[in-house]
Design goal:
Chain lengths: 270, 261
């Protein structure tokens, strides 16, 4: 797929999402406010009822900053989130029209997935600015140009990993008629194991050791930890290497599933 | 009686449709089991760092969260598919088909599609609830448990009423989901003990947007004993919202302009 077409698909998808402006802003603002307030009250209760000022090295302010960034950076990682139209294209037969297009179907879908990142970027800038203006920045947080650059790389990797996870799940549509449940299942488990529900350092030691070997932490925990400075450059580099290996493995699995699926595709829909 | 007979037809069609999509049937069961496991692990990890949350110890939170699982399973089975289709029907102008039927349009559109593939999850959630209640260290008594189950049923109705109330604006907004995504963002309030919330947020969650009445208040009645004012509050808010939602629905139907409205 050439760069011009990729950019065009990317831009179309972004504009499509922003076209329902009232819907977009209502969802963004209320969704963020609801998520943030739940986290705020939950951790306020935990800190006050446990009587601790630090929980596994996290202060209340640092915890809030972690969640704000997880909510916002998580949207950049998830992009189109469900990529539901891959499955729809398969079981409704819509994939056929892409077969005759002189472009790669999967690259086309990835461009759409990336297009969904634009509204998330708008939200990140807006809400992060509001956070900085309204709430005090914790002393322990070390957000520097270098940490922002490292986090940007990790978010990019997370976005690719997320797409690579979702695409094979969507490809199950070659054999099943509805794969929506698989997407939701992945979202539930990756939220917990990837650090969107909790910083992973709150898990017991043995749990953290297990999570270190899994790919999920590269979706949320690594990008945010490196951004706020709780993960240093050496650890980040090692983690980046592990993430890239996982990306390769998942991509190979996806290719295998996709290629097998193509043989059972009939083009008439289920 | 006519409505009951109609509902039995809905059930029959839904079960035969679910049996056609067997893989999805199993995916749905596993999906909800994953949701239950994730929530239980989440609270277990939290309780490694505190002994009390919102005034509740872990066995109490376990009962509370299992109550939420049961409500969620009931909602997914009875109402969720119908709620999913509502904005689509409105935007495509396909609501006409339901409005000309000689039955209440709200009844038809809310209950027509019974998710038989989620039905097993009611059994799984009930099992978890029984396990949480049986492993609870103190005696709770039959009356309290009975009232608790009644309030969970009330919570299910409240969940449905709020869900549809968030979807009805689609008649004016013409967006693809109405305010459905906002509703799902806000349901997280009902997955947390109500006493962690303070001030006006807590008051809102117990009255105007009563997400805390869905499963948290029933759990409080179970642990703290029967208080008539709490029962009256839960049932009264549900009744008021139900009436409000019905009026809102009627108002929305007047704004419906059929095809591609």
């Amino acid at each position: 797929m050439n760069a011009r077409l990729f950019a065009l698909v990317f831009s179309l998808e972004a504009r499509k999402l922003m076209s329902y402006r009232v819907d977009f802003w209502l969802n963004s603002v209320i969704g963020f406010a609801a998520h943030f307030s739940i986290v705020y009250f939950l951790w306020q209760a935990i800190f006050s009822e446990s009587g601790s000022e630090l929980i596994r090295g996290w202060s209340f302010e640092m915890m809030l900053l972690y969640y704000v960034l997880v909510i916002l950076a998580g949207k950049l990682v998830r992009g189109a989130e469900h990529l539901g139209d891959i499955a729809t294209d398969i079981y409704e037969g819509g994939l056929t029209r892409y077969i005759i297009y002189p472009t790669s179907y999967l690259a086309f879908k990835y461009a759409q997935h990336l297009g969904n990142v634009v509204p998330a970027l708008v939200q990140l800038v807006l809400f992060a600015t509001l956070y900085v203006l309204l709430l005090p920045m914790p002393e322990e947080a070390a957000i520097t140009p270098a940490s922002i650059a490292m986090a940007a790389v990790s978010i990019g990797l997370g976005n690719l990993l997320f797409y690579s996870f979702m695409a094979p799940l969507q490809s199950v549509a070659y054999w099943a008629d509805n794969v929506w449940s698989l997407n939701v299942m992945f979202r539930f488990s990756s939220n917990l194991l990837g650090g969107a529900m909790l910083p992973l350092t709150l898990f017991p030691e043995w749990g953290q050791r297990v999570l270190d070997f899994l790919p999920f932490k590269h979706l949320y925990y690594v990008p945010v930890s490196v951004l706020i400075g709780t993960m240093g450059p050496a650890e980040w580099l090692r983690s980046l290497g592990v993430g890239l290996v996982w990306l390769l493995v998942i991509h190979l699995v996806f290719r295998a599933v996709w290629n097998r699926g193509k043989f059972v595709y009939t083009g008439v829909g289920i | 009686m006519r409505y009951l007979r109609l509902y039995l037809y809905f059930l029959r069609f839904s079960f035969s449709r679910a049996m056609e999509f067997r893989l999805d049937f199993w995916f749905r069961i596993v999906m909800d089991v994953v949701f239950y496991v994730v929530q239980i692990i989440f609270f277990s990890v939290l309780y490694n760092h505190t002994s009390v949350l919102g005034g509740w110890e872990f066995p109490q939170v376990l009962v509370f969260i299992c109550g939420f699982f049961l409500i969620d399973a009931l909602h997914m089975t009875v109402f969720a598919n119908n709620m999913w289709w509502l904005p689509i029907l409105v935007n495509k102008g396909d609501l006409d088909y339901y409005l000309v039927r000689p039955v209440s349009s709200l009844f038809f559109l809310s209950l027509r599609d019974f998710a038989a593939n989620s039905f097993v999850n009611i059994l799984v959630a009930s099992g978890l609830m029984a396990w949480a209640l049986l492993s609870y260290p103190d005696a709770l008594g039959g009356l309290r448990i009975g009232t608790y189950l009644l309030l969970l049923l009330n919570g299910t109705i409240l969940y449905y009423v709020m869900h549809i109330a968030f979807l009805i604006p689609v008649f004016w907004l013409h967006s693809n989901r109405g305010l459905g995504d906002i509703f799902f963002a806000m349901t997280r309030y009902s997955e947390r003990p109500d006493r962690i919330f303070k001030g006006y947020v807590r008051r809102t969650l117990l009255t105007i947007l009563p997400f805390s009445l869905i499963s948290s208040l029933p759990a409080r009645v179970l642990f703290e004993g029967l208080k008539p004012e709490l029962l009256l509050h839960a049932l009264g808010v549900t009744a008021l919202l139900f009436v409000g939602m019905t009026l809102f629905w009627k108002r929305a139907l007047r704004a419906y302009a059929s095809a591609s409205s």
